[in-house]
Amino acid sequence: MALIDAGLRGALIALLALVIAALVPHWRHARHAHLVRISISLAASLIVQTLSASPWAEHQLSCPVQAPGIGLSLGSAVLFWLFARAVFEDGFRLRAWHVGLWAAVAAYGGTLCLWGGWWPGWVLMRAVPIVFALLGLACVVGPWRVDLVEPRRRLRGLVVGGGAAYALVLVVMRVRSADGSLSSDAALGDVAMLLVLTALVAGRLLAPRADGLWGEAEALPPAPPAPPAADAQDQLVATALARLMGEGRGYAQEGLSLAGLAEQLGTAEYRLRRVINQHLGHRNFTAYVNGQRLAEAKRRLADPAERGLPVLSIALDVGFGSIGPFNRAFKADTGLTPTEFRQKSLADS
Hints:
Elements: H1 2-23, H2 33-52, H3 55-60, H4 63-88, H5 96-111, H6 119-141, H7 150-176, H8 184-206, H9 232-245, H10 258-265, H11 269-279, H12 285-301, H13 311-317, H14 323-334, H15 338-348
Helix pairs in contact: 1-2, 1-8, 2-4, 4-5, 4-6, 4-7, 6-7, 7-8, 9-11, 10-11
């Protein structure tokens, strides 16, 4: 059993090292730098976790000696959450407070041995992976219906969802243990699960592809994807969508969903998702609809004939449910509040 465990850990460490080696050249990637840096940090942290969670380390080393490994392993929970956000949130940016949060969690885990048998500290240590696993799952489930990128929906959802399930199972196994350490069988199951998840990611990263690691031309600036070969049914859906969202002002429907829009167009949800993503170049349904709404709002705010119409009336009329989300979306898109935009546009005209 010990030899099998050691062999699996060696294979896992080698695979994680290959993932790091594949990602390091993309450290400054124009579009994916934050995901690359988080992924490298997570892989390195998992190497430490693989070593520190081995039966020999947990049963033969004293707690103070294990402390650095415990801290970095606990910090993996934060890195997993950040990885999930970087995968699923278009435009995600790594912030200083993210690094500070990881450092605080790692420091907490690394100094827990100094506190002796203070049981609330150990309870909190078990709670941290659960909390960040649930936050990671929220990143998967929350945008699932509005995500238009099919490969991301299939592969990355499986990997991140599996990662959250792994973290939860691992915490349950440790909680059920009398001293918080894993038995030989549990440790073997732990490394086997992690090896499977890592293999899924490594298979994606290490497979040779002519169009680069990310499935896109890496030397060129990002651009909307070219429409695929014409499909008669897709073309009909695209035409009907343009009519509904243009003349029909379909975007103005409050609470508009992908499923609801597909029903109005009389087409399958997967086909509409493909049309919006591959033909129109949008990656997120909510962003697509809000873009339509904001374009109409900007046109009306710049219209001298509507200078007396309250901003709230325009926000509601284009489909926003309240003024708060409208103001935030407008500021993110233009850098100005709706009122500032109106004043500037009318002054320029």
